[in-house]
């Protein structure tokens, strides 16, 4: 069969006929409509399902696999795998933001961070497993290994430090600073002290 795109080698390597996009890897960008989407996909089936979503960057095995949204950046195995129409998300790390479908403006750095998120928006998670169980909670900030890891629907929480607010599930407007601060608090709200 004929190749879908022409590969030119002359001091530099570039692809033509892809609407400004670059696809490297088996079936990377396979379903892109080749209009001016300006996407970048590097890795096995990265950006596989995307047709018209634009300004996306996917690096890693099946990153942004089901994507149709725009302005997303995914780096790592299965990062942002389930994203459909969510936009302005940044996921760096293995399976970070893996289950997000329509969530917007989430930022995560660390393997398995925000992994269970589906529609939650405007969350920031830094550290392995931070906000790992979050599904629909929004406006949370978790910084540190497994901080806010059990949070599911809680909103407007801030956790800074190793396993801080670790057990919080539905609590809102909590602030915890320091290693394991508020670790056993599960659903209380507006706790300014972050005590255990």
Question: Could you explain how this protein is built, in words?
Answer:
This protein is mainly β. It is about 0% helix and about 20% strand. Strand 1 and strand 2 (about 15) form a beta hairpin. It is elongated and about 60 Å long. The mean pLDDT is about 95.
Topology diagram in text:
Layout: E1 6-9, E2 13-16, E3 22-24, E4 40-42, E5 57-59, E6 73-75, E7 90-92, E8 107-109, E9 124-126, E10 141-143, E11 158-160, E12 175-177
Parallel strand pairs: 3-4, 4-5, 5-6, 6-7, 7-8, 8-9, 9-10, 10-11, 11-12
Antiparallel strand pairs: 1-2
What attributes characterize this protein structure?
two-stranded antiparallel sheet, elongated, 196 residues, ten-stranded parallel sheet, mainly beta, 0% helix
Q: What is the gist of this entry?
A:
The protein has 196 residues and is mostly beta strands. It has strands at residues 6-9, 13-16, 22-24, 40-42, 57-59, 73-75, 90-92, 107-109, 124-126, 141-143, 158-160, 175-177.
- What is the residue-mean pLDDT, rounded to a whole number? 93
Number of helices: 0
Helix content: under 10%
What is the molecular shape? elongated
- Calculate Rg over CA atoms: 19 Å
Main sheet summary: 10 strands, parallel
Structural class: mainly beta
Spell the H/E element sequence. EEEEEEEEEEEE
Strand order of the largest sheet: 3-4-5-6-7-8-9-10-11-12
Total strands: the figure is: 12
Report how far apart the termini are: 64 Å
What fraction of the residues are assigned to beta strands by DSSP?
Answer: 15-25%
Low-confidence stretches: none
């Amino acid at each position: 069969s004929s190749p879908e795109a022409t590969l030119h080698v002359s001091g530099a390597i570039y692809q033509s006929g892809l609407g400004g996009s670059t696809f490297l890897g088996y079936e990377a960008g396979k379903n892109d409509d080749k209009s001016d989407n300006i996407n970048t996909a590097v890795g096995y089936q990265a950006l596989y399902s995307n047709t018209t979503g634009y300004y996306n960057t996917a690096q890693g095995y099946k990153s942004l696999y089901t994507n149709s949204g725009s302005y997303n950046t995914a780096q790592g195995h299965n990062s942002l795998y389930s994203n459909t129409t969510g936009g302005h998300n940044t996921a760096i790390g293995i399976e970070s933001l893996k289950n997000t479908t329509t969530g917007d403006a989430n930022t995560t750095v660390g393997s398995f961070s925000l992994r269970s998120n589906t529609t939650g928006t405007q969350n920031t998670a830094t550290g392995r497993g931070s906000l790992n169980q979050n599904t629909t909670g929004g406006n949370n900030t978790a910084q540190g290994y497994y901080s806010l890891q059990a949070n599911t629907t809680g909103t407007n929480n801030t956790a800074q430090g190793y396993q801080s607010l670790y057990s919080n599930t539905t609590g809102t407007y909590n602030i915890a600073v320091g290693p394991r601060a508020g670790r056993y608090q599960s659903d209380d709200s507006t706790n300014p002290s972050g005590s255990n």
